[in-house]
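Narrative summary of target 7.
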Amino acid sequence: MAYYEITGGVSLSGEIIPQGAKNEALEVICATLLTEEKVVIKNVPEISDVINLIGLMQDIGVKVSHIEKNVYAFEAQSINFDYLKTESFRQKSAKLRGSVMIVGPLLARFGYAFLPKPGGDKIGRRHLDTHFIGLKKLGAEFSFDVKNSSYTINGKNLKGTYILLEEASITGTANVVMAAVLAKGETLRTLYLSTLQNACVDGC
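Modeled conformation, tokenized:
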């Protein structure tokens, strides 16, 4: 059986640069859809899920520049909503569960989003209820196309509200927050059994 043997009593010194976290990188990249201004993100982990999301962002119309290693610039001046309904988008988003997080910012800025059932890592049942319940609380309306296994979401008049999510979902929280930042009013977000209590997001 393999094991590590650690001998103490020696002073440690030096510097390390932690790699950016995948889940947080996916959220921050999706958040660039909230503005048409150029956004530069540093310490982006260049791993498959992140690279796939960056490619997906380019496909939907976001201008992406790879400035240097781990540094990218995003400009979401316009979005090709027609591409969201193509088979290409369906296949690519099915390979990346994080694709669901484009819904929040698209609803916030444009009042519309389209989402095929996302895929990603196969680690058991990972439903999207938390995302959808939170977005519905803000006023989004969902319709499901059984034939194409896809969701059309409308949210032209999102309004801030009190939201209680009964599942500890990081990506669900991120999606709701991104949708709420441009909504009218104030959103009070409480996560059941979480240390993140009374997180407020001010609308504009």
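The two ends are 58 Å apart (CA to CA).
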